[in-house]
Amino acid sequence: MSQQTKIIVLDDDPTGSQTVHGCLLLTRWDVATLQAALADSSPLFFILTNTRGMSAERADAITREACENLRVALASCEQAINPILVSRSDSTLRGHYPVETDVIAELLGPFDAHFLTPAFFEGGRVTRDSVHYLMVNGAAVPVHETEFARDSVFGYQHSYLPDYVAEKTQGRIAAEQVERFTLADVRGDIGARLLGLHGNVCAVVDAEQQADLDSFASQIQVAAATGKRFLFRSAASLLTSLAKLGAQPIAATSMSQYVRAGRAGAIVVGSHVKKTTAQLQVLLQQTGIAGVEIDVMRIDTERDVLLQEVISLAQAAHDADLTAVIYTSRVEVVFPDQATRLAFGERVSALLMDVVRQLPVTIGFLISKGGITSNDVLSDGLALRTSRVLGQILAGCSVVRCPSDHPRYPDLPVVIFPGNVGDDAALATAYQRLRGVSA
């Protein structure tokens, strides 16, 4: 029996679709939903587990549940499926590694190797000589020198990926055991090396441009056709090379055609990284915008009053044909431990989702800023079981649409805007494109 290749992405937030189009995003992973996704015509789909917003224990449990159901769904397919499994995570190395790849290997393995491919070109993330960099104003800054390495939950000390692996696995995988695929390697012939990998060896992959990952992915697929099984811990750019989808059907500059009745929309900003704050400042200066700040310090004492204030302000803005920008206050809150921080983040998100559920029913569009925020918007605020990616409105920023039978927001276009993507004007540019102002 012939096999169909399907790229299956377990995504720790909903921003992995930053470089693809036409595929499904799943916010549920019961067997029936997975079976429908496996039968879909797109070569890939995403399971939005949102584990980056969870503790390691919850991340393990959720990933385990998704993998167990996926194993059942794969076994039930009428046509044999050759799955390419990707644990999609942050291009700045935050996330539950190796928790998630360990679970995937246990339940869906064995694998001959698992590859770390964190390059994300649209976001200025490149890897050379096994060192991962963030491009800042044209300069390559090792990621361990950035704010992302100081994350209170996912902090790390190394940009040299073999050392990062050793750090995150607490020495279970030593740096010298990690296979390195340099730029010279991926731009050449690595077929024999790929065929020689076994025992779920860890490998790290250089990439400075999409062509590097194109070469790597094509050679991976040749090796996979011989029966080799590989797992990937990856940012978004590898998915472009694996899926080979071509250009999206609707141009980024034409996304305003999806806006409902040409109406003003709403923008929800939950991300707190510096880039988001800079983008928010530019956005608030645009014509047709009404800023609505949520004082997060009031959530635990005045939640209901705060919620009603925000909803009233959003409705007033919409009545005036203005787009409400609903954003959490930029104050830096200090927490005694990771559990307290995650719990507070969940309370903030719960409030934001209550806002999303009560936005004016006639908004023309919705922009969700931040990875975890976007996942919660799709799965909780909008209660979408599945959604299909229309394409990107900006590099790295996907557009999905609510189904026509959605009980509150039928056909609403939703922009998934990662927290750490784009220049300072990017959020304003996305807004202008939806309003048909900017080319």
Structure description:
- With 439 residues, the chain is an alpha/beta fold.
- The protein is 34% helix and 22% strand.
- The chain is built from 13 helices and 18 strands.
- The strands form two sheets. It has a 15-stranded mixed sheet with strand order 9-10-5-11-4-1-3-2-16-17-18-15-12-14-13, with helices on both faces. A three-stranded antiparallel sheet has the order 6-7-8, with no helix packed on it.
- The termini are far apart.
Quick structural overview:
With 439 residues, the chain is α/β, with parallel strands linked by helices.
Features of this protein?
single chain; 439 residues; alpha/beta; 15-stranded mixed sheet; 13 helices; 34% helix; globular
**Which shape, going by the Cα principal axes?**
globular
Q: Estimate the helix proportion, in percent.
A: 25-40%
The chain-level structural class is alpha/beta
Percentage of β-strand residues: 15-25%
- Poorly predicted regions are none
Topology of helices and strands:
Layout: E1 3-11, E2 24-26, H1 31-39, E3 44-48, H2 56-75, E4 80-88, H3 99-108, E5 113-117, E6 125-128, E7 131-136, E8 139-142, H4 161-168, E9 179-181, H5 183-186, H6 191-196, E10 201-205, H7 210-225, E11 230-234, H8 237-243, E12 266-269, H9 274-283, E13 289-294, H10 299-319, E14 323-328, H11 338-357, E15 366-369, H12 371-381, E16 386-394, E17 397-401, E18 413-417, H13 426-434
Parallel strand pairs: 1-3, 1-4, 2-3, 4-11, 5-10, 5-11, 9-10, 12-14, 12-15, 13-14, 15-18
Antiparallel strand pairs: 2-16, 6-7, 7-8, 16-17, 17-18
